[in-house]
Amino acid sequence: MPTDAPAPADPTRERFSLADQIEEVERELRYRYGVYAKRVDDGKMTRAQADRQIALMRNVRDTLRMIAAHYGPVRKAVADDLQREKEAEEVAELMKNPAVQAVVAGFPDAVVGLPGRPDRSGAYQPERESASLERCPAPEPEPYHPEPPPFGHDYEDEAAA
To answer: Least buried of 44, 95, 107, 141, by fewest C-beta within 10 Å?
Structure first.
Protein backbone atom coordinates (compact mmCIF):
# COMPACT_ATOMS: atom_id res chain seq x y z
CA MET A 1 0.00 0.00 0.00
CA PRO A 2 1.58 3.38 -1.03
CA THR A 3 2.13 5.97 1.64
CA ASP A 4 2.34 9.74 1.34
CA ALA A 5 4.74 10.02 4.28
CA PRO A 6 7.99 11.78 3.41
CA ALA A 7 11.13 9.69 3.26
CA PRO A 8 13.31 9.95 6.35
CA ALA A 9 15.91 12.67 6.16
CA ASP A 10 19.42 11.63 5.22
CA PRO A 11 21.52 12.58 8.28
CA THR A 12 24.61 12.89 6.10
CA ARG A 13 22.91 15.75 4.18
CA GLU A 14 21.57 17.61 7.21
CA ARG A 15 22.29 21.34 7.29
CA PHE A 16 23.66 22.96 10.43
CA SER A 17 23.77 26.54 11.64
CA LEU A 18 27.03 28.46 11.61
CA ALA A 19 27.00 28.46 15.42
CA ASP A 20 26.75 24.64 15.45
CA GLN A 21 29.55 24.37 12.89
CA ILE A 22 31.82 26.68 14.89
CA GLU A 23 31.08 24.71 18.07
CA GLU A 24 31.98 21.45 16.30
CA VAL A 25 35.22 22.87 14.93
CA GLU A 26 36.18 24.10 18.40
CA ARG A 27 35.45 20.61 19.79
CA GLU A 28 37.65 19.13 17.06
CA LEU A 29 40.43 21.56 17.95
CA ARG A 30 40.31 20.52 21.63
CA TYR A 31 40.42 16.88 20.51
CA ARG A 32 43.39 17.49 18.24
CA TYR A 33 45.37 19.27 20.94
CA GLY A 34 45.02 16.23 23.19
CA VAL A 35 45.38 13.42 20.65
CA TYR A 36 48.11 14.96 18.49
CA ALA A 37 50.37 15.58 21.49
CA LYS A 38 50.23 11.85 22.32
CA ARG A 39 50.75 10.87 18.65
CA VAL A 40 53.84 13.10 18.49
CA ASP A 41 55.15 11.60 21.75
CA ASP A 42 54.55 8.06 20.37
CA GLY A 43 56.35 8.93 17.10
CA LYS A 44 53.20 8.39 14.97
CA MET A 45 53.14 12.02 13.86
CA THR A 46 55.74 14.76 13.57
CA ARG A 47 55.36 18.02 15.45
CA ALA A 48 55.20 19.83 12.05
CA GLN A 49 52.33 17.59 10.90
CA ALA A 50 50.43 18.15 14.15
CA ASP A 51 50.98 21.91 14.00
CA ARG A 52 49.80 22.04 10.39
CA GLN A 53 46.63 20.01 11.05
CA ILE A 54 45.78 22.17 14.06
CA ALA A 55 46.49 25.37 12.10
CA LEU A 56 44.21 24.19 9.29
CA MET A 57 41.36 23.59 11.73
CA ARG A 58 41.97 27.00 13.34
CA ASN A 59 41.67 28.53 9.86
CA VAL A 60 38.36 26.74 9.34
CA ARG A 61 37.11 28.07 12.70
CA ASP A 62 38.27 31.61 11.91
CA THR A 63 36.64 31.51 8.46
CA LEU A 64 33.35 30.36 9.95
CA ARG A 65 33.54 33.08 12.61
CA MET A 66 34.19 35.72 9.93
CA ILE A 67 31.22 34.50 7.89
CA ALA A 68 29.02 34.48 10.99
CA ALA A 69 30.12 38.04 11.91
CA HIS A 70 29.32 39.30 8.38
CA TYR A 71 26.49 36.94 7.49
CA GLY A 72 24.19 39.45 5.77
CA PRO A 73 26.78 40.94 3.39
CA VAL A 74 28.31 37.52 2.68
CA ARG A 75 24.90 36.05 1.87
CA LYS A 76 24.09 39.01 -0.41
CA ALA A 77 27.46 38.72 -2.20
CA VAL A 78 26.91 35.01 -2.82
CA ALA A 79 23.35 35.63 -4.06
CA ASP A 80 24.61 38.41 -6.37
CA ASP A 81 27.32 36.11 -7.78
CA LEU A 82 24.80 33.35 -8.40
CA GLN A 83 22.46 35.83 -10.11
CA ARG A 84 25.28 37.12 -12.34
CA GLU A 85 26.17 33.54 -13.32
CA LYS A 86 22.53 32.84 -14.20
CA GLU A 87 22.30 36.04 -16.25
CA ALA A 88 25.57 35.28 -18.03
CA GLU A 89 24.13 31.90 -19.02
CA GLU A 90 20.98 33.64 -20.31
CA VAL A 91 23.07 36.06 -22.38
CA ALA A 92 25.17 33.18 -23.74
CA GLU A 93 21.95 31.40 -24.75
CA LEU A 94 20.65 34.61 -26.34
CA MET A 95 23.88 34.97 -28.32
CA LYS A 96 23.18 31.60 -30.00
CA ASN A 97 20.20 33.17 -31.79
CA PRO A 98 21.14 33.97 -35.42
CA ALA A 99 19.16 37.23 -35.34
CA VAL A 100 21.11 38.43 -32.29
CA GLN A 101 24.36 37.39 -33.92
CA ALA A 102 23.46 39.44 -37.00
CA VAL A 103 22.72 42.53 -34.92
CA VAL A 104 25.93 42.16 -32.93
CA ALA A 105 27.89 41.70 -36.17
CA GLY A 106 26.35 44.93 -37.48
CA PHE A 107 27.24 46.83 -34.31
CA PRO A 108 30.64 45.54 -33.20
CA ASP A 109 30.84 47.87 -30.19
CA ALA A 110 27.44 46.72 -28.89
CA VAL A 111 27.28 44.93 -25.55
CA VAL A 112 24.56 42.37 -25.01
CA GLY A 113 23.06 42.45 -21.53
CA LEU A 114 19.82 41.95 -19.70
CA PRO A 115 17.48 44.90 -19.07
CA GLY A 116 17.97 46.55 -15.71
CA ARG A 117 21.18 44.61 -15.01
CA PRO A 118 24.82 45.58 -15.34
CA ASP A 119 26.62 44.25 -18.38
CA ARG A 120 30.21 42.97 -18.43
CA SER A 121 31.54 46.50 -18.05
CA GLY A 122 29.38 47.15 -14.98
CA ALA A 123 27.16 49.65 -16.81
CA TYR A 124 23.44 49.17 -16.37
CA GLN A 125 21.31 48.35 -19.37
CA PRO A 126 18.07 50.34 -19.56
CA GLU A 127 14.92 48.50 -18.49
CA ARG A 128 13.43 49.20 -21.91
CA GLU A 129 14.54 51.47 -24.70
CA SER A 130 11.60 53.89 -24.58
CA ALA A 131 11.87 54.22 -20.82
CA SER A 132 15.55 55.07 -21.05
CA LEU A 133 14.87 57.75 -23.65
CA GLU A 134 12.13 59.26 -21.52
CA ARG A 135 14.48 59.44 -18.54
CA CYS A 136 17.27 61.13 -20.49
CA PRO A 137 16.82 64.91 -20.50
CA ALA A 138 17.78 66.79 -23.62
CA PRO A 139 21.29 68.15 -23.33
CA GLU A 140 21.41 71.79 -22.36
CA PRO A 141 23.04 74.05 -24.93
CA GLU A 142 26.46 75.20 -23.95
CA PRO A 143 26.62 78.87 -23.03
CA TYR A 144 28.05 81.12 -25.71
CA HIS A 145 31.54 82.27 -24.81
CA PRO A 146 33.10 84.13 -27.74
CA GLU A 147 36.81 84.06 -27.92
CA PRO A 148 38.26 87.47 -27.24
CA PRO A 149 39.68 89.10 -30.35
CA PRO A 150 43.41 88.93 -30.74
CA PHE A 151 45.30 91.93 -29.46
CA GLY A 152 45.12 94.79 -31.91
CA HIS A 153 42.19 93.30 -33.91
CA ASP A 154 39.77 95.89 -35.18
CA TYR A 155 36.21 94.80 -36.05
CA GLU A 156 35.60 98.01 -37.96
CA ASP A 157 38.26 96.98 -40.48
CA GLU A 158 36.34 93.73 -41.15
CA ALA A 159 33.05 95.60 -41.65
CA ALA A 160 34.64 97.93 -44.20
CA ALA A 161 36.10 95.05 -46.17
So the answer is: 141
